[in-house]
Amino acid sequence: MTEVETRQRSRVLWAVGGVAVVVVLAALTRYLEQNVPVFTKGTWLGGIAKSVEYPVYAILLGLLGNAVLTGLGFRDRLAAGFRTEFFIKTGLVLLGASINFAVIVKAAGPAIAQAFLLITLVFGFTWWLGGKLGIDQKLRALLASAVSICGVSAAIAAAGAVQARREQLAYTASMVIIFALPSIFLLPLAVDALGLSPAVAGAWIGGNIDTTAAVSAAGALVSEEALQIATIVKTTQNALLGVVAVALTAYFALKVERTGEAKVSGRALWERFPKFVLGFLAASIVATVFLESGGDKAAITTVNDLRTLFLILAFVSIGLEFRVAPLREAGWKPIGVFASATVFNLLVGLGLASVLFANFGG
Amino acid sequence: MSAEEGVNRERGLAVNEDWAATIAGLVLLGLVLAGILPGWLVP
């Protein structure tokens, strides 16, 4: 075996080890979620334990695992197995099966309107503020895409579109995760404090939190209906990612780099279109037809259990992926821009969700 | 690995995960609806 093969084999083995860590922590999450309320029943902890849901256990166990593995020096080598994107997207395709297709059709209008307005306003604000503070154009594009569309996937697509540096991508991705983590807990608390309806709450969460996985975690903490609307809104934003990526490619080619080669084609749009959106829609159609033609409802319950399993795997991975180090390297300006854009997004998002989803019932 | 190769690699991985997740989700859905994957097997 050559040295290259040995190295590749060792990388694969570490990645498999990473997946095993995620699976073990997910099993522990399931165990705690089901048994802690039983163990603490009748004690002063009982009431709290009953209201703690699986996203909380999953993220906390992920963070704990992260601290232990970092301490042992294994975390970075195992990180290839922490596949948040794969787990969350599989979970969301399965989530599609629990949403009647009529609900998606009904929510599509306000969801598209909100996504379009929110992306335009938040992208514009972040781009403007980044310019005022003299941030590099490529980093500005990455920050604006990440905060206005869908976190890490948007940053990856924007990085490809503007030919950003790898460190800029790693830095933006870290910032997305650092800001998303507290939002998972803070937004549901704010929803309670503001007394929002499940639909408005879902639309607000879906339009604000940057990563799709964190949107699902926060939505699940509020209610099933909030989770469904949050997912529809976030999925709509995801679907618009291709349009923004292509626009950025054109802008950088024509205005910034002045190469004059702007590849604006249907193919480029398709390449950047998040394909799991199609899976989500297909699952909803299949399940709706299945139920309306007399299919067994218990089967959908099983699909929902499978969905929860994948969401737990994704939430554990969020905790395991969390890193603060890249932030120290980039200085305060991009953090300031990202934080201001997040606050702007929260306020504009709340206004839009309250107007567009005011009369949305189930 | 150059910076550009790094970004392209991340993009490639994201595209593959997108399709992999879509297929995995739909296959699991199909298996459950067809009764091949029973409820008791899902923890």
From TrEMBL, chain B:
Keyword Transmembrane: yes
Keywords: Membrane, Transmembrane, Transmembrane helix
Record field: transmembrane: 20-42
Protein name, entry field: MYXO-CTERM domain-containing protein
Organism lineage: Bacteria, Bacillati, Actinomycetota, Actinomycetes, Pseudonocardiales
